[in-house]
Amino acid sequence: MEEVQDKWICGFWRRIGALFIDSLVLGILGSVIGLFLEDTFVQLGGWGRLIGFAVSITYFGVMNSSLSNGQTIGKKILNIRVVDSSNSTISLPKSFLRYSFLAVPFSLNGAQIPNELSLSYLMYPLSLITLGGLLSIFYLYVFNRVTRQSLHDLVAGTYVVNAEANRQELPPVWKPHLGVVAVLFIVAVLVPAYTSSLFESEPFKDLLVTQEAIISKESVRYAELTTGSSTVTSSDSDTRTTTYVNIQAFLYKDNVDDAKTAKQLAQAIIKTYPESLSKDLIQVTLAYGYDIGIASKWNRYNYQFNPKDLIGLE
Asked: Which Pfam families does the record associate with it (predicted)?
């Protein structure tokens, strides 16, 4: 029975291979568009991911539908396609619905979310969609070996199959898989409750104030701020731990080689985050570029400062 099913249902690695090829095609397309619209993409900032979402959902929505025999470029190369339970290709609306359940979690993952939103109740549905969706997609991809349906396939009632194979009867999805998916979504909903308590703690509150001070600078579009430590063990077994404050500032203009701007941002950290004076290092990364989801381009320059050397400098 399993041998017959494997001939109709596409195997894991062939499906991943097709996705890799399609991602490469979209990446090249996004990079070519970026050659002409780089400045526009940079100004869009985090909203640039909507561009990649629009391109990818159009590509996969159209190509996975009956308009293209259920085959994207990657699926054509590897001879697989998207079908319904009767082994027929799916309509355009169903294809768009199917891909949206895959694209939305990936598009939201890593997006630059404002602090106001991060601290609001909207984080609960966002976590449900993003974290719950991603975990469920990965889990089903790996462990649902009989039907090989991931979350978006279950929602749309579709299968990815070998194009020249005949349809075969399949057992329903193993119910414990659905139970695990339910648990993953529940965990995703609970995560913001934990993270919100972290944001209310003193270190995080102070860091948020500093982040807002950096973003208020005229040249800075967005900023990410972290603290931590790194430990290095040398060949003579000496161990050295370095504590640091790290900031990555995304600029409106390609001035990543402007050391004066980097020093001003380091001084802003000292003024708004006094604990930085107890650190060994302040690391400032100036970044300029864009990320539209399907392609990205970044120019970065790193600067390091001793906090004590910046005291009293203006």
From this structure: RDD
Is residue 168 classed exposed, middle or buried when 0-12, 13-18 and 19+ CB atoms within 10 A define those classes? Answer: middle
Convert the pLDDT of each residue in 102-159 to its tens digit: 999 988 887 666 665 666 678 889 899 999 999 999 999 999 999 999 999 999 999 9
| pLDDT for residue 155 | 96
CB atoms within 10 A of CB 66: 15
CATH of 202-310, one of 3.30.2450, 1.10.287, 3.30.70, 2.40.50: 3.30.70
In the sheet with 296-305, reading across from the earlier edge strand, the strands are 220-233, 239-251, 281-291, 296-305
In the chain, ranges of CATH 3.30.70 domains: 202-310
pLDDT at 3: 43
Please tell me what DSSP assigns to residue 301.
E
Contact call for residues 246 and 229 (beta carbons, < 8 A): no
HSE, side-chain direction, 13 A CA sphere, residue 20: 7
C-alpha distances (whole Å) from 178 to each of 59, 137, 144, 174 are 29, 12, 10, 7
Read off the pTM.
Answer: 0.86
Q: Which residues of the chain have pLDDT under 50?
A: 1-5
Return the percent helix, strand and coil in the chain, to nearest 5.
Answer: 55, 20, 25
Phi, psi of 111 (to 5 degrees): -70, 150
CA distances from 59 to 41, 65, 100, 183, 296 (A): 20, 10, 12, 32, 18
Rounded to an integer, what distance in angstroms lies between the CA atom of residue 94 and that of residue 227?
46
Count other C-beta atoms under 10 Å from residue 48's C-beta: 24
